[in-house]
Amino acid sequence: MRRDQKLEQLGQLAALRSQRSAARLAGRMAKLTALQARDTALRAPPEGEPASLPELIARDRHDTWRNQQLARLSLELARARAEVEPFRHAHARDVAREQVIARLQGKRTKGAG
Predict the structure, then answer these.
(1) 64-69, long-range: CB within 8 Å, 24+ apart, which pairs?
(2) Cα-atom radius of gyration of the chain, to the nearest Å?
(3) Where are the alpha helices (DSSP H) in 1-113?
(4) Using CA atoms, how far apart are residues 83 and 104, in angstroms rounded to an integer?
(5) Chain centroid offset of residue 46 CA
(6) Per-residue confidence at 110, pLDDT binned at 50, 70, 90?
(7) I need a labelling partner for 84 at 20 to 30 A (CA). Which of 31, 65, 95, 109 fits?
(8) What torsion do the CA atoms of 58, 62, 64, 67 make, to the nearest 10 degrees?
(9) For the whole model, what pTM was predicted?
């Protein structure tokens, strides 16, 4: 098998690895994005000022619930970020590998021509 053919096959393999790592990363990023959206929604300031004592009590209860939810969500976000990081690194390596092989293929075609 010629060197050009080996390099071509290596390029195809690198592209497949890159696609696989992108798919693995996408699922985890979707979970992380959903958690971040919930976090943003919970951090939104309440609308208007309470006009009566029952509204003030309801606002206070809601603030207590919201703070508990934010504390729980912060832990989930930290776990999700920690889970995503190795997949980000793996995908970055696979993309870099694919780019290096593509560059080598470009040099071989320029050198051969």
Answers:
(1) 66/42, 69/42
(2) 25
(3) 3-43, 53-112
(4) 33
(5) 29
(6) low
(7) 65
(8) -160
(9) 0.75
Residue 47, pLDDT score:
84
Convert the pLDDT of each residue in 16-59 to its tens digit: 999 999 999 999 999 999 999 999 999 998 888 888 999 999 99
| Most distant pair of Cα atoms in the chain: their distance | 83
- Interhelix angle for 53-112 vs 3-43, to 10°? 170
Which long-range contacts does 54-57 make (Cβ < 8 Å, 24+ apart)? none
Do 33 and 113 meet the contact criterion of CB atoms below 8 Å apart? no
Tokens matching residue 25: 């990363």
- Give the span between the Cα atoms of 21 and 14, in whole angstroms: 11
> What are the φ/ψ torsions at residue 49 (nearest 5 degrees)?
-100, 145
Contact (CB, 8 A) for 95 and 18: yes
